[in-house]
């Protein structure tokens, strides 16, 4: 399952990434393997989404979220 | 001022870095450019207890030393390049105490460059409030650096930070964070060897960034490239393993030193606000309400100060005319230079107010939510959620709006935004539209309630937005992206705006506008003045002689005589001659040579149109006396056809021309300043002029 499929309010644990370039940027922002993520809200038009990770809120597009595989 | 010690401020965005910078330096700061790039360089001075002057350099906020934008790439260059005149003796890394984990990544990178470091632990008040307990002594001991808890917003701990800067070590004593050499042992060893480096992390960063940094030679960069191939170095993989190693170190550190309560309480208030502000329905309603308020304020609040500024310049001009002896030099100074200067200065209130709003919206965290809400919509036409702000600001003035595109990291998105922002109906077009609509559109009500003139004006505003979106879409297809677009962005916790920062932002932006765009505007104004005040050969003397003849001097009152002379001089000036020269080109649009002059003069600024029309139709006064201009224009008759010059077709053709044409020297100047390449303003000028001509031609042909 990828982060883009996670329901609003649900918690997941990051397992790995499918895109190296994106993973580098995401990891810098504290979104690393083993980290817990919650989908805190979805933009009114359905994309992008906002997640809680490492104690703060990060927004990313659904496509970007789809490169994050959850446990 | 001489710098005894140079201190660089480094930190993540939204950590209060600018607030700390303002607290340290006060008004003792200045904005400039880092050499060769359009990144604002903020430096200031701060006096230490022992009398030494510390120069504080505010580096752009970044999440890591691996840059994602031009702004961010400056950080590594300043820190690493010892030959840079701003190379710091000491780095103050500012950390958000409520979000230490992500903030510490940048710290560990900076610390590994082995420059003396101090940590300023900001937002201590908020951290305490949400129950975060930091063992500062242990934290400092484990990292091996001084840690000063501060609250920049409340200016708490600033004196202690100054003292820490005063007593800072000259050599770096921080503990190792990760074993850098294990990431690429052979490559780091070889680069260190060949380039005589004693810092493995510096060597590793050179391997990553050698293609973009400016302080190494092309030969050196090529050598690094060879070495990378030899040791099969993969930049992104190396960066990934480095980041993981750093977070492992950070997790261990935080496990021992920081206790975070199970439930984070600070989140809830921000969450509640978000539920309303990013709501499916209310979110958009609130956003449009905010915009409406912003617009109204930009127009309403700036009207009075703009009038004052304009009046002041009129006063200065008339006084100088009386004081100085009449002659070409006085004319050039008073009408050319000061006239041009007043054209720049009247925009200050609008720019200041627009930037006050933008700074408040950014400071509170609302801007990131707008970006979040609009991204999907804007992406469809090749823009980005962050393009909303400049496009909206374009209704006031394209100049500050183009400056505000810097928040867009993606190169292509930013370029498209810059290219289409001047299409949005700015306040300078308003007097032209009002004048022309009043000329040809009847003041009737349709369907009881809508005024026809008002509808026409609203139509022009809507039309401008649509054309901006269509052009953006066209640029999306034409421009090639340099980098992949992405939208990984922090949504900061809502905070109250810091009024100090708002004031600084208003001041800085206005100042930058006056000095940077002002130079170009004055130059163009001078040229236009010369063109309109001199004519080829002895045409002017002949006109003067002609009006000295008794048939004129006896039948005309003195002021009527002056008007007649001025009007004929204008026709015979270089600008007038130019108007006649371009007449064949603009004939298909329904314009005569007089409108041609107005088109030429309003290249400097659109609002010059009304003034030029006033001069051409020899009406006394200026744009304020609209009714008179309007009457004269209404009664103007084409000598060849005997029909009115300003028919419905001509008026709409003119409005179309002004809707599209890039007739604003300030915008040209600011686009050059922001892109640092004449190619972009040139392309923009060309495409907008072509569109203007085509739209005008269509409007005239259809309505004729």
Count of DSSP E strands of chain A? Answer: 5
Query: Could you tell me the number of beta strands of chain B?
Result: 12
Q: Which quaternary structure do these chains form?
A: heterodimer
Overall shape of chain A: it is globular
Mean pLDDT figure of chain A = 91
- Average predicted confidence as pLDDT of chain B: 84
Secondary-structure element order of chain A, N to C: EHEEEHE
Q: Rg of chain B to the nearest angstrom?
A: 30 Å
List the uncertain runs of chain B.
618-626
Figure out the total of helices of chain A.
Answer: 2
Instruction: Give the biggest beta sheet of chain B.
Output: 7 strands, mixed
Biggest protein-protein interface? Answer: A-B, 32 and 44 residues
Report what the structure shows.
The complex is a heterodimer of chains A (71) and B (704). By secondary structure, chain A is of the alpha+beta class. Chain A is built from two helices and five strands, in the order βαβββαβ. Chain A has a five-stranded antiparallel sheet with strand order 4-3-2-1-5. In chain A, strand 2 and strand 3 (49-53) form a beta hairpin. Chain A is globular. Chain B has 704 residues and is of the alpha/beta class. Helix content of chain B is 61%, strand content 7%. Chain B has a seven-stranded mixed sheet, with helices on both faces. In chain B, strands 7-9 form a two-stranded antiparallel sheet. In chain B, strand 10 and strand 11 form a beta hairpin. In chain B, helix 25 crosses helix 26. The radius of gyration of chain B is 30 Å and the shape is elongated. Classes of the chains: A alpha+beta (71), B alpha/beta (704). The interface between A and B is large, with 32 and 44 residues.
Short description:
Chain A contains 2 helices and 5 strands, in the order βαβββαβ. Chain A has 71 residues and is an alpha+beta fold.
């Amino acid at each position: 399952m990828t982060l883009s499929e996670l329901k609003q309010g649900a918690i997941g644990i990051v397992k790995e990434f499918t895109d190296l370039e994106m993973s580098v940027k995401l990891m810098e922002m504290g979104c690393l393997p083993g980290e817990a993520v919650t989908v805190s809200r979805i933009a009114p038009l359905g994309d992008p989404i906002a997640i809680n990770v490492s104690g703060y809120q990060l927004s990313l597009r659904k496509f970007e979220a789809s490169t994050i595989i959850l446990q | 001022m001489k710098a005894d010690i140079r201190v660089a401020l480094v930190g993540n965005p939204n950590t209060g870095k600018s607030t700390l910078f303002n607290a340290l330096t006060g008004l003792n700061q200045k904005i400039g450019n880092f050499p060769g790039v359009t990144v604002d360089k903020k430096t200031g001075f701060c006096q230490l207890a022992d009398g030494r002057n510390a120069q504080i350099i505010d580096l752009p906020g970044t999440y890591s030393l691996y840059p994602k934008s031009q702004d961010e790439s400056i950080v590594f260059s300043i820190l690493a390049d010892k030959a840079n005149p701003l190379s710091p003796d000491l780095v103050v890394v500012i950390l958000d105490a409520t979000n230490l984990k992500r903030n510490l990544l940048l710290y560990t990178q900076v610390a590994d460059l082995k420059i003396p470091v101090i940590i300023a632990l900001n937002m201590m008040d908020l951290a305490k409030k949400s129950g975060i307990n930091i063992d500062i002594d242990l934290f400092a001991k484990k990292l091996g650096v001084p840690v000063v808890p501060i609250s920049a917003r409340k200016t708490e701990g600033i004196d202690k930070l100054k003292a820490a800067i005063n007593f800072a070590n000259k050599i770096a004593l921080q503990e190792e964070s990760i074993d850098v050499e294990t990431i690429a042992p052979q490559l780091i060893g070889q680069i260190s060897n060949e380039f005589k480096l004693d810092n493995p992390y510096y060597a590793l960063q050179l391997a990553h960034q050698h293609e973009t940094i400016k302080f190494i030679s092309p030969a050196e960069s090529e050598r690094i490239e060879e070495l990378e191939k030899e040791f099969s170095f993969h930049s992104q993989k190396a960066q990934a393993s480095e980041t993981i190693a750093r977070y492992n170190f950070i997790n261990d550190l935080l496990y021992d030193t920081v206790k975070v309560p199970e439930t984070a309480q600070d989140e809830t208030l921000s969450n509640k606000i978000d539920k309303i502000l990013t709501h499916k329905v209310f979110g958009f309603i609130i956003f449009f309400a905010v915009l409406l308020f912003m617009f109204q304020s930009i127009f309403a609040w700036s009207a009075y100060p703009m009038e004052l500024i304009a009046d002041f310049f009129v006063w200065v001009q008339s006084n100088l005319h009386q004081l100085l002896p009449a002659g070409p030099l006085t004319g050039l100074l008073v009408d050319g230079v000061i006239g041009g200067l007043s054209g720049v200065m009247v925009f200050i209130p609008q720019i200041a107010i627009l930037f006050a709003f933008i700074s408040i919206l950014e400071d509170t965290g609302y801007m990131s939510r707008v970006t979040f809400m609009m991204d999907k919509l804007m992406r469809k036409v090749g823009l980005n959620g962050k393009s909303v702000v400049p496009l909206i600001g374009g209704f006031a003035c394209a100049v500050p709006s183009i400056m505000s595109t810097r928040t867009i990291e993606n190169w292509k998105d930013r370029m498209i935004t810059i290219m289409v922002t001047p299409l949005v109906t700015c306040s300078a077009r308003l007097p032209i539209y009002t004048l022309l609509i009043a000329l040809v559109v009847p003041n009737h009500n349709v369907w009881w309630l809508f005024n026809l003139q008002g509808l026409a004006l609203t139509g022009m505003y809507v039309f401008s937005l649509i054309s901006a979106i269509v052009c953006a879409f066209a640029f999306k297809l034409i421009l090639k992206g340099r980098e992949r677009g992405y939208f990984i962005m922090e949504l900061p916790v809502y905070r109250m705006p810091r009024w100090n920062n708002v004031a600084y932002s208003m001041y800085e932006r206005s100042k930058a506008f006056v000095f940077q765009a002002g130079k170009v505007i004055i130059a163009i104004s001078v040229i236009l003045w010369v063109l309109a005040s001199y004519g080829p050969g002895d045409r002017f003397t002949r006109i003067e002689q002609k009006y000295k003849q008794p048939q004129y001097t006896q039948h005309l009152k003195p002021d009527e005589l002056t008007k007649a002379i001025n009007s004929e001089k204008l026709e015979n000036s270089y600008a007038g001659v130019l108007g006649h020269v371009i007449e064949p080109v603009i004939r298909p649009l329904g314009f005569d040579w007089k409108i041609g002059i107005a088109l030429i003069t309003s290249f400097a600024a659109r609002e010059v149109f009304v003034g030029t029309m006033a001069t051409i139709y020899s009406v006394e006064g200026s744009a304020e006396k609209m009714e008179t201009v309007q009457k004269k224009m209404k009664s103007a008759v084409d000598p060849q056809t005997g029909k009115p010059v300003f028919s419905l077709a001509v008026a709409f053709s003119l409005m179309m021309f002004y809707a599209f044409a890039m007739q604003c020297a300030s915008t040209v100047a600011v686009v050059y300043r922001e892109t640092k390449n004449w190619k972009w303003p040139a392309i923009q000028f060309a495409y907008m002029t072509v569109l203007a001509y085509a739209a005008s031609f269509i409007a005239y042909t259809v309505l004729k």
